[in-house]
Amino acid sequence: MMRVIILVALSLALLDMAWSAPPTCADALEGVFYDSKRLDANLLARNGTMLGTVILSVVERKESRCFRAVFTVEGNNLSLGKLRAGIITAGEPLPTGKNRFTKRKLATAPLRMKMDICPDRIPRGESDFSCCGLLEFFAFAVFNQGETSVRGYLAPAANTTQKCRIPDEKKPFRYVCTVESFCRILTPD
Ligand SMILES: *[C@@H]1O[C@H](CO)[C@@H](O)[C@H](O)[C@H]1NC(C)=O
Ligand SMILES: *[C@@H]1O[C@H](CO)[C@@H](O)[C@H](O)[C@H]1NC(C)=O
Ligand SMILES: *[C@@H]1O[C@H](CO)[C@@H](O)[C@H](O)[C@H]1NC(C)=O
Asked: For a substitution probing ligand 2, which of 50, 51, 76 has the most ligand atoms within 8 Å of its CB?
């Protein structure tokens, strides 16, 4: 009897998880051409030392257009370890924990790697329009430095044209950058 109750409770919990899966921009951006100005940003150690760069732009892939973050090592004796990036629609409460990264990768190349964030990895709120507008970009990387590793936090490059800010006063070394996307509905010729 007990086992049955536990099983029922468990399957209800699983169903609930499936139902509450957050919507993404995949549906909203289907048949929509979108683009954005590129974001130039740096990855800095907590003390401000430059470790690398991350550049975000929109690329055309077979199945859809996607955001592409290219991570590049800049410092001496460094190589890429772990890569993290995330995009969410603006206006949602900003995630502060690990859930701000919607894409993760272990580096397989030492100096430069790309990571694509397609619309199905961009969580959104209730409105479809939220995908065509302001998007928040998070990025982070762990660099290997000899036997140790060093964390690289997102910070705007001097020449960036996008707006970046510090969402958590307690972590003044960590930025989030707002990327503006432009959408145009594709009409058949
Ligand atoms: C800053 O941090 C990096 C990475 O931990 C370290 O290699 C570098 O020596 C530090 N620089 C200063 C000025 O403390
Ligand atoms: C890089 O590593 C080499 C070999 O371990 C060392 O000789 C050199 O001083 C290091 N350079 C820097 C800038 O840390
Ligand atoms: C910003 O500077 C970087 C490094 O010099 C350069 O590659 C990039 O094209 C510049 N971006 C803009 C928007 O000027």
From this structure: 76
Quote the pTM value: 0.84
Which ranges of 33-122 does DSSP label H, i.e. alpha helix? none
Ligand in nearest proximity to the CA of 75: 2
pLDDT in tens, 71-115: 999 988 999 999 999 999 988 778 888 889 999 999 999 999 999
> DSSP strand E in the chain: where?
32-36, 39-44, 50-60, 65-73, 79-89, 103-106, 112-117, 134-145, 148-156, 163-165, 176-185
Look up residue 108 and give its two tokens: 């397989």
Per residue in 4-22, pLDDT (tens digit) is 555 555 554 554 555 556 7
